[in-house]
From TrEMBL, chain A:
Lineage of source species: Bacteria, Bacillati, Bacillota, Clostridia, Eubacteriales
Entries under PROSITE patterns matching the protein: PTS_EIIC_TYPE_3
Molecular functions (GO terms): protein-N(PI)-phosphohistidine-sugar phosphotransferase activity
Protein name according to UniProt: Permease IIC component
Statement: the UniProt record of this protein carries the keyword Aminoacyl-tRNA synthetase: no
InterPro entries documented for this protein: PTS_EIIC (IPR003352), PTS_EIIC_3 (IPR004501), PTS_IIC_cello (IPR004796), PTS_Sugar-EIIC/EIIB (IPR051088)
Superkingdom of source: Bacteria
Subcellular location: Cell membrane
GO cellular component, one term: plasma membrane
TM segment ranges: 36-56, 76-96, 108-126, 138-159, 180-198, 210-231, 238-262, 282-304, 316-334, 340-360, 390-409
Membrane topology: Multi-pass membrane protein
Species assigned in the record: Fonticella tunisiensis
Known function: The phosphoenolpyruvate-dependent sugar phosphotransferase system (PTS), a major carbohydrate active -transport system, catalyzes the phosphorylation of incoming sugar substrates concomitant with their translocation across the cell membrane.
Domain spans labelled PTS EIIC type-3: 13-408
UniProtKB/TrEMBL annotation, chain B:
Pfam families referenced in this protein's UniProt entry, alphabetically: PTS_IIB
InterPro entries assigned to the protein according to its UniProt record, in alphabetical order: PTS_EIIB-like_sf, PTS_EIIB_2/3, PTS_EIIB_3, PTS_sugar-specific_EIIB
Single annotated GO MF: protein-N(PI)-phosphohistidine-sugar phosphotransferase activity
Residues bearing the modification Phosphocysteine: C12
Keyword field: Kinase, Phosphoprotein, Phosphotransferase system, Sugar transport, Transferase, Transport
CDD domains, sorted: PTS_IIB_chitobiose_lichenan (cd05564)
Gene Ontology annotations of biological process type: phosphoenolpyruvate-dependent sugar phosphotransferase system
Classification lineage: Bacteria, Bacillati, Bacillota, Clostridia, Eubacteriales
Name under which the protein is recorded: PTS system cellobiose-specific IIB component
Source superkingdom: Bacteria
Domain PTS EIIB type-3: 5-114
Organism: Fonticella tunisiensis
Amino acid sequence: MAKTKMDSFVAILEKHIAPIASQIEKQRHIASIKNGMISLLAVLMVGSISLIITGLGNFFPEGSLIRNFFDAHNHILNLPFMFTYGLLSIYCAISISYAHSRQLELQPLHSIIGGVLATLILNGKYTDGAFDFSFLDSRGLFISIFASLIAVEIMAFLIRKQVTIRIKGLPDMIGKTFEAIIPLLIIIILSVIVNQITLSLSGGKNLSEVFTVMFAPAVNSIDTPLAVFVVSLSEMIFWFLGLNGYAILVGFTLPFMTQYLAENAAAFSAGQVPTHIFTENWWGYFLACTGSGITGAIAILGLFSKSKELKAAGKAAIVPAIFNISEPVVYGFPVVYNPYLFIPFVFGTPILGLFSYYIFKLGIVRAPIASIGGMPTPVAQYLVTLDWKAIILSFIIVALGVLMYYPFFKMYEKSVLAQEKEENTVEQEILKELDLDF
Amino acid sequence: MNFDKLRILLVCNLGASTGVMVAKMREVAANSEKLKNIDIKIDARPAGDIKEYLPDYDVVLVGPQIKHRFAELKELCDKYNKPIDVIDTKDYGMVNGANILKTAIVLKVKSERK
């Protein structure tokens, strides 16, 4: 009885939620932001190498030979950081314009030039005729995203309306270059106009500064317990329906999370305490420690299960879980559409998320400062925070996950065992009848 | 099997979990006597830029975690005349490389009979 009720509940969820998921991912701008920001992770990872190396140098005692070497060459070790995080808006403009030009089926090269031009101009300030580059770090990130999307849209519009220079008989490559001249010029003129108006209306602040002041509450609103809970709950509902909730939501959250990480990294680099928690790697390695839904805990329970089927699923899932990949658990046990695991998976995960959020909020573990990829738990958790307590935290999260899933898992196991027993007898009878020779 | 080449593309969000599947499928393919004479190539890629590499493959398999994008991906694959299917969730969860490989081969054979 309870089962049929659950089934109809799941059917309702699927009917209403699945179309939302496909609508979100089909939306061109969100898709471009997502694809662009994900490509940007490569830049963050390269920049993080500086932080990690410097962090490792700090292991050695003050005055020791190795520490002295690190301190003396600090400015060189810092180069990867400066030229990545320090110019993040440029890389962001490149990757968003590229992603969006692919969406709109435009020539990537001129679209990138357009997006970068708009970003440079709108983040610009000119003192005595010299360009002030300082806003091209994470402070210019949001303007860089909007400027690139709009620039590429303008480009697409003008090319579609044929507001371009076309000279007959030119080779295609050169023709394309001429085609870009008028759109690029219009992008420059519009950007300069917007920039000048902003500077004069705000008393010398550029668009990024104005944006930061005006939208600071909105920008910081993602880094709150409520947002963590809502994002995590939505993610888990999508995952329960078998859809990658991270992929669906990350288009909205990545701009914020990237900004947070960049601010944390800059604070750490300057010897201050990083304050933001809800960064992309916090989501990946703490909120979703061993996989979205703390699925490593289910894999562990599977390994010790009496059921053959669940044990096999646990074996298949445990190594991916160490690498924070949840799919083998989600589809193998399965968690998808599984009424027994619905409550801990969908509601337990955000609660555990809040637990680890507060561990960071209270300053017990250092907030994430570096971006890395492809590292197993708990190496990943250590490297993103450079705090050994993060290793302990990751074990605690998994242990709490095991406790959380245990009663629900046992109920599920019981039903699987009952079914296995039934199937076994039928199978055994058939095998006996067949009397096979192998 | 009347083909000597089979290029299989697995797509998911970032190519991470399909990467796990690919490793397993390659292992199965390498150990199979029947597939010895077929040049099999299996790759995992993110769905985001499928357009770029779609022409290089014969069949496309979609990870179940992005099945909400199946309609959109199928439309594209139809344009390029590439057969596409969603991987069975149970096979995906159990990292059943053999079954996923079978799905790909069946997809290819079916598309050639058309």
